[in-house]
Specification:
Helices cover 69% and strands 0% of the residues. It has 257 residues and is mainly alpha-helical.
Length: 257
């Protein structure tokens, strides 16, 4: 059998134990450094993912803040208009401004106010398991944010239920043919903003002037209006909450405004 000797050792001599130890230490050091380097690379990658999630979340919160601002103006106008509609329902037939009633019903009752806050990034964080990448202090803040967003979105169901009841009950008083006639433009297209009612010279008739039924309808309007008021308060609180979380995340992750 052919024997191969170490190139630096004279033929027939054994390599000293110290060289074996040195080779072992060098191999051990190389493996350890590789392991450390991989851990560092993984940590850098995870920090990058964490930063991307937080940047996306801040973008979501900023978009929600803008939507809330626009929605607040719309709902505040509806709050005032619903009050006018409820008041008209209590007037005698000859004093009712039915053109205003038609406008208020179609514009403020039938205008859908379905606004939910955007929680896509939070859902992705939880479903992907990447919530583990978030430091405890930030994760606690996100948990509170998630709870408040879910509460805001869940309350929308009660609001829309009240709106649906108003719309359904209003069908007994407001003739859809009057809506079409008042809002059809000369070119045949329909004015979907209901502005045709604001230019009528005469008050169009209601389908019914039954006082008890009108009072019941006014009660439905009142419930819807009260919920709209609560919704306005909730939106203001939400805007404050979103602004606070945006500022916190921007500072924690050095995100530019």
């Amino acid at each position: 059998m052919e024997v191969h000797y170490h190139p630096h050792m004279p033929k027939g001599e054994k390599k000293p134990f110290r060289e074996y130890l040195l080779e072992f230490l060098m191999i051990f050091l190389a493996v350890t450094m590789g392991f450390v380097a991989e851990n560092i690379r993984e940590a850098i990658h995870e920090r990058h993912i964490e930063h991307e999630y937080m940047a996306s979340l801040v973008s979501d919160l900023q978009a929600d803040t803008q939507k809330l601002s626009l929605y607040t103006d719309t709902l505040r106008s509806a709050y005032d208009g619903l009050g006018t509609l409820a008041t008209q329902c209590y007037l005698p037939k000859g004093k009712m401004e039915t053109a205003r009633m038609y406008y208020a019903y179609h514009h403020f009752c039938r205008n859908w106010y379905d606004l939910k806050l955007y929680d896509k990034t939070l859902v992705q964080l939880k479903s992907s398991g990447n919530l583990r990448l978030i430091p405890a202090a930030v994760a606690d803040s996100l948990a509170g944010l998630d709870d408040q967003i879910q509460f805001f979105n869940d309350r929308m169901a009660f609001f829309l239920e009240a709106q649906t009841k108003v719309v359904d009950e209003g069908l007994a008083f407001f003739d859809y043919a009057v809506y079409v006639k008042a809002n059809t433009r000369p070119d045949g297209s329909l004015n979907l903003h209901d502005e045709g009612f604001l230019h009528l010279e005469r008050n169009p008739p209601l389908l019914s002037y039954d006082p008890p039924a009108l009072k019941r309808f006014a009660g439905r309007i009142g419930i819807f209006r009260n919920l709209a008021g609560l919704r306005l308060e909730g939106m203001q609180a939400c805007k404050t909450m979103l602004s606070r979380n945006i500022a916190f995340l921007q500072k924690a992750y050095h995100l530019t405004e």
